[in-house]
Structures are given as structure tokens and as C-alpha cells.
Amino acid sequence: xxxxxxxxxxxxxxxxxxxxxxxxxxxxxxxxxxxxxxxxxxxxxxxxxxxxxxxxxxxxxxxxxxxxxxxxxxxxxxxxxxxxxxxxxxxxxxxxxxxxxxxxxxxxxxxxxxxxxxxxxxxxxxxxxxxxxxxxxxxxxxxxxxxxxxxxxxxxxxxxxxxxxxxxxxxxxxxxxxxxxxxxxxxxxxxxxxxxxxxxxxxxxxxxxxxxxxxxxxxxxxxxxxxxxxxxxxxxxxxxxxxxxxxxxxxxxxxxxxxxxxxxxxxxxxxx
Amino acid sequence: xxxxxxxxxxxxxxxxxxxxxxxxxxxxxxxxxxxxxxxxxxxxxxxxxxxxxxxxxxxxxxxxxxxxxxxxxxxxxxxxxxxxxxxxxxxxxxxxxxxxxxxxxxxxxxxxxxxxxxxxxxxxxxxxxxxxxxxxxxxxxxxxxxxxxxxxxxxxxxxxxxxxxxxxxxxxxxxxxxxxxxxxxxxxxxxxxxxxxxxxxxxxxxxxxxxxxxxxxxxxxxxxxxxxxxxxxxxxxxxxxxxxxxxxxxxxxxxxxxxxxxxxxxxxxxxxxxxxxxxxxxxxxxxxxxxxxxxxxxxxxxxxxxxxxxxxxxxxxxxxxxxxxxxxxxxxxxxxxxxxxxxxxxxxxxxxxxxxxxxxxxxxxxxxxxxxxxxxxxxxxxxxxxxxxxxxxxxxxxxxxxxxxxxxxxxxxxxxxxxxxxxxxxxxxxxxxxxxxxxxxxxxxxxxxxxxxxxxxxxxxxxxxxxxxxxxxxxxxxxxxxxxxxxxxxxxxxxxxxxxxxxxxxxxxxxxxxxxxxxxxxxxxxxxxxxxxxxxxxxxxxxxxxxxx
Lengths: 272, 549
Prior knowledge:
The structure holds two protein chains of two kinds.
Chain A: H1 2-26, H2 63-98, H3 101-116, H4 119-130, H5 134-161, H6 164-171, H7 176-212, H8 224-231, H9 240-271
Helix pairs in contact in A: 1-2, 1-9, 2-5, 2-7, 3-5, 4-5, 5-7, 6-7, 7-8, 7-9, 8-9
Chain B: E1 6-17, E2 20-31, E3 35-39, H1 46-52, E4 61-64, E5 67-70, E6 73-74, H2 80-86, E7 91-94, H3 98-101, H4 108-119, H5 130-143, H6 149-152, H7 162-174, E8 180-184, H8 192-207, E9 211-216, H9 219-223, E10 228-233, E11 236-242, H10 243-248, H11 253-261, H12 272-276, H13 285-288, E12 297-307, E13 313-324, E14 329-333, H14 340-347, E15 355-360, E16 363-364, H15 370-373, E17 380-383, H16 397-404, H17 407-411, H18 414-427, H19 444-457, E18 462-466, H20 474-491, E19 494-499, H21 502-508, E20 511-516, E21 519-525, H22 526-531, H23 536-544
Helix pairs in contact in B: 4-5, 4-7, 5-7, 7-8, 8-23, 16-19, 18-19, 19-20
């Protein structure tokens, strides 16, 4: 009973945290009156306190404000890249799942080659081809996530394709395309939607990682990975410059995973 | 302690989940050498009653019991540890599906031996030596009539047939020499001839002095082995008594309903019995209107081969020919693996024959591209054993039925379509209020009605039904069969009815094909075939059907 309550608490706090981060991304000015780019040379490297809850950085910018404004970029990349990977993954995965076996075989071996490399390496490779930049980070992270979605979408398609209701639709003389649109795709989307919730966390980490390496948005832009890298050299004298962005990344990813897992469990429970 | 020892005595057993009472003050007793059958439909609480005797009730169940004596020991306050000591050594359990109950990665012998390893030698409880265990296992398998027990013990469950698996399961239940055996639907997954053998085995064990509790949904199955029958409904025992008494002179209306709903096979020796039974004859439409008109469906020399694991070829269907005239009903019976389902799939053109051809309404149906079939598919529709699987889980009842409407009906106004859907639901006896439900919110019988409504939407001339009532309770089964018979009468829909259940076929069909290993071994009018079977296989099949006295 206590364990269950503790699980609930974790879930509720994770969901609440995500809601706060989403509001930060949409309307950062609610949380802070300061502009994230304002420098104040009289307030360099202030430790956390009343005026600056997360302290200030080496040019006197308020770290709290910059973390709040950073949410929109990190969350935007996370959600955007995941959504793009999901859509492309479902389309490709469904087509591959419905295609003749030869096409399916060739396509899936290709996907497996991509899966053999760590996602981050693929993202780095994509950046190397596309060149650095904020939009390219999103594209690179999306590309890296894509093979997994294709694979799951294909597997789900194969299951749905052999299901009784697809056979029933065929038996009613329905055109295969219509079957794909009205039965196969909607039923593959359900499990994928849940997987994508967990995937958002991974994507945020990957995007922050690329920014940390300086391949994403450039300095004055408040982005969590970039903030983390900016504070890296100051860890000895001003831990707060790196700590708070890092904590935000960690908490956001953990929360997204907790909520995603819970959704998945709910789905599987309903299925059986 | 009168004539024989009581091995189980339960009184006032109630099981509830929260507010719901699923077993309601049930009392029963079984003596050594006696067989008690608990009969009821799904949800009657029969399985939970049996599980209570083993302390196997699921979490969340709260149990109240006045008396619970198992093999002479009061088990009311048993801890999980106490139960573990009892299970296997005093009470043996045989469950429905042997393939699931046996560990696929372990040899059958190891499965049986495990009981001996856990409980030690029966009686003394001493640890047994390896060699002694092997001997005991071989002996046990021999006792349940497994041929070549020593060899079989070294095989894996998937290498055994369904009947042998069920025997192995019974052997493992007997290993600890329990005084009582609880068998939950022990033959439901088995073919009728195998079922007869397993029932035979159970009654031999009973004669050896074992107390047996058989749980079943099928009165006819238990009629042959049970000394007493307890009929359960909604958690209560509504009637209990000697088997012959209950079957010949049922007191409770529910028992009467169950008996009336059970499909019966015409008795070979008393043909006139059929006339008066519920099976009631159909006007034989088969010969009447058909002459000169193209049959609805014609199969000519159908054959379909599959490659076996060892590279050989197995003919699942071989040289099957028949015709179905408008409004006729033809039954296809046989055991599992006889090719019935493959044949149904060939008729529906879900699969292409390797030999022979199918013609639908006089035009070729097999061997043509799917796009040429598509517009004609409405003419032949399919009812499967598993309606739930044939519905998109996201769809509502109305949408499921709408999917079956032909192109021309799709074009009509939304109001006209809604009207048509209501009409279809009405024709299968479903209330319009169910339109908004999703498949998982329906009962088994309702689901099968929705499946039939969808099939009727395209105004088919023929329905291919593959075991459409096998998964349903007897009383529901009877209503679905009535529905199919009514559709045939009122709409003139022809039926191909695939089933392992001879009695159901006898009730619905005027012609029957008996299949064995892909071939039709006997055919003819249903009455002829079942009353006067000529082929030895048909004879065995008919003889194996459990009959009520």
C-alpha cells in the first residue's frame, strides 16, 4: 500500500513538473520579469539568493531567467523532433510492413544497420553532413530517433495486418489502401504514441548534448545544453551556473520517462 | 464415516471481490471413489469454487467458509505454506489447457517428477532417489495410459498430441497420490474422440478410489462420468443430485433450460427421436429450388499443400468437391487438423488452392486477381470463431456494421444508412442502444450477433461460418444457432458451417461432409450420416460424442 502511494507521488510530481516546464516553454515571462539577454556587470557571478534564485553568470545574466527561457528551445526540439520522427516512422514503417517481402527485407536490413550505431553518433553524423545550427540539431536528433520508430511501426503493422479485422475488411471487398488508412495506421499509432512520450526525454538529452558541444544555437541564446557548457569552466568558483541547467535537463528527462512508462503500463494493462 | 471416506467437505463457501459476490454459500462434499461434476456457464463461479479447494483464489478475493475439510484436514486457516504442502500431495489439479500448463522447455517426465521432488515419496514424504523417481514417473505415465511411457517421458510437450499432453498433466496431478483430483474443463480443448478417451481414463481413476471434482460447461460431457451433478448459476448451486436424476428429472428451471439448449445428436438406433426434439427438421430446401439454377458455390477437386518442417509436403485439403445451392446448409465436420479451416479459407478466397477451383454464383472465384474479386466479395461472407478479433478495437458497433454495407448503400444519405444499420441490428436481435458500444463492452453472444449483422450488411448469398459457436455458452450457442437457422429460412442465405461439434451440425445442416486428414471420407444427408455412419472414422466420431442418458 505504501509502495503504491509512493509510486503515485512520483508520478504526480513528474506530471506536475512536466506541466510547469511546458508552461515555461510557452510563456516564460510569467516566471521572470527579466530579459534573458540582459547583462549586468555589477552582478557578475552572484551566488543564488533573493534577487537571483539560481545566481548569475559571468556577464551578470540571471541564470533562473535563462533556464526558464531555455525550456522553449529544449522542449521544442524534443517534441518537434520526436513528432517528426514519429510521423515519418509510421509512414515508412507501415509501407514497409505492407510491402512485398523483398522490399521489407532490404528496408529492414538498412534500418538495422542504423540501429547498430548509437543514436548520438548518428545525430553527430547528421550534423556533420548538415552543418551546425539550431534547426539542424532538431533534424539530426529526429533522424537519429527515426530507425526505432520505423521498426516498431513495421512490427505493429505486421501484427495488425494479420489481425482478424483486417481479414474481415478484406472479406468485405475493401481496397487495401482503404484498409491501411482506416485500420492499419490508426492501430499502429496507439502504441507508438506511448513510446514517443518516453522518446521525448531521450531526444531532449541528445539535443542538449549537441548544443553542449557547440553544434547547436550559439552563445547568447539561452539553451540548456549551451548553458551547461558555459558553466563548465566555472564549476570551481560558481557551481550554480552549470548546476541548474543540468538539473533541469535531468528532471525533465526523468519526468518524461516516468509519465511515458506509466502510459505504456496503462495501455498494456488494457490490452490484456 | 459411513460407507466410504469423505475426501472433500465444504460448507457455506462464499467468495467476494469487493461488493460482488461471485460464489454464494456453496456446500459440497465428495467421497473417495466418487465423481462430482460442477456444471455452469461462464461467470457462474464454478472455477472459483474449484480454486477455493486448492487455496488458489486470486488476490483481492475475500473468502468466508464455515467448513473446509480436505482429505481429513481442516484447511480453513491454512497459510500459503500449508496450502503448498497440500497441493499435489492431497489435492491434484488438472487444468483446461495442457499446452499452457506444461512448461514448454521441460521434458514431460521432468514435469511429472517435480511433484515427487517437492513432496517426496507419496505417503512417507521421504526424499526419493533419482532412479526411483524415474521409475515412478514411468509408472505414472503408464497408469494414465500413455503408450511407451519411458520414451514419452523424454519428450517435450509440443511433441505430444493434445490427448497425450492432457494425460501427462493428469499423471503429474496423480504423482503425489492425492485423495482428490480437481479437473477444470479437462476436455474442452480436445477433439471428441480424444475427449472420450480422457473421460474414460478419469472414470477408471475414480473406480480406483480417487475422489474427482470435474468442472464443465457441458452437461453431456459429465453425464458419462459423474455420480452427482451440482448445477451452478450466479455463484449459487441451484440444483444438486444424482446425475441420472438431475438429467432425467431436472427441478430447477435453469437446469431445464441448460438441458434444452444442449444440442443433441440423433440417436443411431432411434431415428424417430429426432422428429420431436428441439433440433426440429428443416424443410429440405436443398433439392427443391436448385435444379437448373447455378449453385451459389461450387468447389471442384480442391487441394491445398503446405510444406512440413522436415521438407515434406502435407496436403491440408485434398480433392474436395461439393456444391452449395441457394438457401442450403452444408456442414463440414472433422477433428482439429483435418483441414476444415483451410477449406473455409479457400472458399472465402483468403487462400489460393494448389489444385482445383472454386466458383461463386457460377463465375470463377479462385485463381483470379484480388481486384476482380473485390466487388463480388459482398456475396460471400465470413463468420469466425473469434468475433472480438475480427473487430477493430477502436470502432463502435454502428461503425463495424456500417463497414459491411456495400458501395451503393454507402452512397445513400447518412439517415438512410443509420436506418439500415438499425435494421440490421434488429434482424440479429440486438437492441439499437448498443450502437455506440465498443466490441470489448459486449458479451460473447452479442459480439457474434454483431459479426453476423456486419456479414449480412452486404446481402450475401452465402455465409461461411468457421466454428461460430464453439466459444459460447450452451444457452447462448442455442440462440445463435436459432438465429442462423432463421436467417436461412427468411433470407434464403446458404450456409457452410464448419464445426467440430457434430450435434450442432446435426441441428442446423441438411447435408454434411466428414473430413479426415484433408479428405472427405463420408458425405450425405445429415441424418443418414449420423444415424447410419458407414466410414469407420465417422463411426468413431459419432460414437465418441458424449450423450445424456
